[in-house]
């Protein structure tokens, strides 16, 4: 991270209106939420239909121009998909046609860290981290940038995996894989942490205090024991077992930290 | 479920174009994915801005007209939110104004059940379940339906929680909470299960077979020990400990089942 904690500008598009004490515009915070999410939801509109469309995709933020950039720096979002999928075709058509900037998209990622149970059901809440980004999607055509993005995305699934796979990619693999690049226009995140809280009249309700359990049910993702494929001949390598251990430890800690009374 | 496994009609909006062997239109399958997701992503467009918007929300499918309906029956989606949030205001404005059907939305839910690691990075995959629904959102104004939806949504977070909280809701609670009802127009789901697979040329590559670990890293959500609030006076009740136990057992089993070689 640089000397400043960079923020996305607050505009009509991204301003968190509700419970704004939970809102943040920090690039570092937003990018971390996106990059630690295994699935991103991408929304776009299509002139041929009345509903916006959401697709689940795999992606990661990075900078091809400056690969050493930190999480808190201005970054692009790279998304992986099948080359002739609808989102790829629409992005191609829009950047070739009316809008060279690319297709307007919204990208969302959310993590649940716990269920917060209060006396009143209306004071129930989640501990969560959620982020949205707004930007324009174009297809990556530069071969070198495409390779950069594929390595970035593969290593986001399992750190250090790319160089442990069969390389280089075949021509067919490269041709069948599309990479979308989203240039970010703005973004925001919402984070909620803490223990249960109730309004004064519920806190003073002795009968309810004596009968309703209040607290947090912490929730986190867990990775189980690796399950080798029928054709695997190799012991679980260190970079995978270390990843699983870090994943489990970090996620559990995140859920426990979120549940602390603030 | 009824005598038939009902399906949403296949139309341009919802047809799964890519890898269609994974696509399904079964109401039962789609509704289960939505109902077991703690956070739903809702997308809508606003005339005042260029990007579609995604919001994370809590919701559940049900039928106010026929509360005994099964998961595989035609259902509505109820979403919970703050009454003067942007999505509520837009829904209200649209159904009062140009489109009495309500605001067109897309709703998505995705679960990751495992990371599938192959010899080629291009044969990597996820085991996952994802669903999208398309429909029109309107604000619920009927008091009885609003109460039905709030109970439905609270009990979707922790089964049986509603009747263990302070009831009835106060007037202020009811007034500050908005419920959106999405009438579903169509939907689809994509599911991927299985062990790692590689193309023939990678399977015949002895050097790679001897060096690359292939298999599945199963992933599931885990609920940790309940953490009581500072003002809690009650032991963890059975309906909560049972829920935590079922949640953990079911999710782990789902991830393990998904990783089985097909």
Automatic annotation (TrEMBL), chains A, B:
<protein>
    <recommendedName>
        <fullName>Flavin-nucleotide-binding protein</fullName>
    </recommendedName>
</protein>
<dbReference type="Pfam" id="PF12900">
    <property type="entry name" value="Pyridox_ox_2"/>
</dbReference>
<dbReference type="InterPro" id="IPR012349">
    <property type="entry name" value="Split_barrel_FMN-bd"/>
</dbReference>
<dbReference type="InterPro" id="IPR024747">
    <property type="entry name" value="Pyridox_Oxase-rel"/>
</dbReference>
């Amino acid at each position: 991270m640089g000397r400043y904690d960079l923020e996305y500008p607050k505009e009509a598009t991204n301003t968190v209106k509700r419970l704004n004490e939970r809102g943040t515009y920090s690039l570092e915070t937003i990018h971390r939420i996106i990059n630690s999410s295994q699935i991103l939801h991408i929304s776009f509109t299509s002139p041929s239909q009345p509903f916006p469309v959401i697709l689940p995709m795999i992606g990661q933020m990075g900078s091809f121009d400056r690969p050493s950039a930190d999480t808190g720096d201005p970054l692009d979002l790279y998304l992986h998909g099948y080359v002739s999928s609808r989102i790829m075709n629409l992005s191609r058509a829009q950047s070739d046609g009316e809008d060279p900037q690319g297709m307007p998209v919204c990208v969302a990622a959310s993590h649940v860290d716990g269920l917060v149970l209060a006396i009143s059901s209306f004071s129930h809440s989640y501990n969560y981290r959620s982020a949205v980004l707004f930007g324009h999607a174009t297809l990556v055509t530069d071969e070198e940038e495409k390779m950069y993005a594929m390595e970035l995305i593969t290593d986001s699934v399992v750190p250090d995996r790319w160089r442990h796979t069969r390389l280089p990619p075949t021509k067919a693999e490269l041709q069948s894989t599309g990479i979308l690049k989203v240039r970010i226009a703005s973004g925001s995140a919402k984070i909620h942490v803490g223990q249960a809280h109730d309004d004064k009249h519920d806190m003073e309700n002795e009968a309810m205090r004596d009968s309703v359990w209040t607290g947090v049910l912490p929730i986190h993702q867990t990775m189980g024991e690796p399950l080798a494929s029928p054709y695997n001949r190799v012991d679980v390598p260190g970079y995978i077992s270390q990843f699983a251990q870090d994943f489990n430890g970090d996620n559990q800690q995140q859920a426990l930290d979120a549940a602390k009374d603030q």
